[in-house]
Design a protein that fits this description.
285 residues; alpha/beta; Rossmann fold; Hypothetical Protein Tm841, Chain: A,domain 3; 6-stranded mixed beta sheet; 4-stranded parallel beta sheet; 25% strand; globular
Length: 285
Amino acid sequence: MKQRIAWITDSTAYIPEDLREKYGIHIVPLDVIFDDGAYEDGVELTSEELYEKIEQSKTVPKTSQPAIGKFVQLYETLAKEYDCAIAVHLSSQLSGTYQTSKTAAAQTAFPVEVVDSQIVSYPITTLLCKGFELAEKGVDYREIAETLRREASRNENYIVIGKLSQLHKGGRLTNAQLILGTLLQIRPIFTIKNGVVELFEKVRTENKAFRRIFEQLDRARSLHRVVQVEILHGNVIDKALELKETIKSKYGDLEVLVYPLSPVLGVHGGQGTIALTWTNEETES
């Protein structure tokens, strides 16, 4: 008899509604904190509303992990209907959400395997989908969690920041850096490696940034099996769809998905940010 596994993640993951309904995924929201109060990510604040409020605010809002009580209450409720659970959260290096989820699980009698995705956004969903496949084959929930922990290291991602002004407003750029960067059209490319955000490279102009990322995609495809690319955007759907067409014309065999960044991620990336991400799978022998 298959285990009744509950699936949990947090609001930084983008979960399409059909997937959420099919597998009954439980999403615990983080908070976005403005001067006028805290808003639950994706529940009380949409991405569009976030950017409007940021434009009107003199400071960039803060973000906060869910309170431990939210997890404890969820796990106690799930224990009545499920045998066990797997919770996949954003990188433990970027938020305390993973540790809070673990601590909450230890406080209940409900068996929960908590997985550090080492990433954010749709790559978390990719891990969950891998978990669903294994669960349908009857694999034990602990083994599924171990597999997902190994799979997490296969993600490759590149993030092009949309507005340097938001980095400046958030205190991550000085006035001089903002002025120089704007004049020279500098586009920093970041990547998340081993759960930590790192500067990959600084290039001139957005087009050069994407050409540089395509070079990385070419390299990845020469070494691994890459079947899907995800484009994640900060409220710039037209730009994201244009980029999708460029990728499809260059790599006709790739599936390309386009999704928005959650409000919590929008706080740190800013409007106009575009991220490309994919999974480097083992080549078939």
